[in-house]
Backbone:
């Protein structure tokens, strides 16, 4: 008799778990329907394009404010170190003019980053400037 009671309790526990899972699914669906714009905005913010870490401190249109970039690529740094960093961070590089550009399609603002540099005879940087331009903001 005890086996039948145990089987009945197991069926009841399964039914309760199924009901709770269904109820949780309904609550989640209602939440998404009611708050779809908020959920969409949160996902857009999380997955939007961002500036490279070395340029997160830069103010718009002020190359001197890119302190971390300027410290990393100061005079005397091998040009190849800068070029490697630019490639890794998806810049479009014009090696002939020593300029690079990269759009940042982020939220809340779209930006454009321009990098220019010069080198000495030993291919060491004499100057490297990065400027972040604001394109548009929400």
Residues:
């Amino acid at each position: 008799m005890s086996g039948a009671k145990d089987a009945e309790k197991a069926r009841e526990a399964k039914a309760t778990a199924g009901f709770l899972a269904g109820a949780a699914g309904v609550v989640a669906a209602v939440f998404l329907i009611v708050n779809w714009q908020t959920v969409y905005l949160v996902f857009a913010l999380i997955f939007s394009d961002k500036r490279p870490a070395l340029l997160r401190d830069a103010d718009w249109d002020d190359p001197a404010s890119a302190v971390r970039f300027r410290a990393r690529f100061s005079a005397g740094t091998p040009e190849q170190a800068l070029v490697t960093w630019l490639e890794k961070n998806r810049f479009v590089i014009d090696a002939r003019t020593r300029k690079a550009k990269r759009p940042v399609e982020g939220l809340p603002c779209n930006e454009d980053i321009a990098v220019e540099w010069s080198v000495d005879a030993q291919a060491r940087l004499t100057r490297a400037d990065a400027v972040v331009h604001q394109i548009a903001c929400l």
In short: Residues 53-137 form one domain.
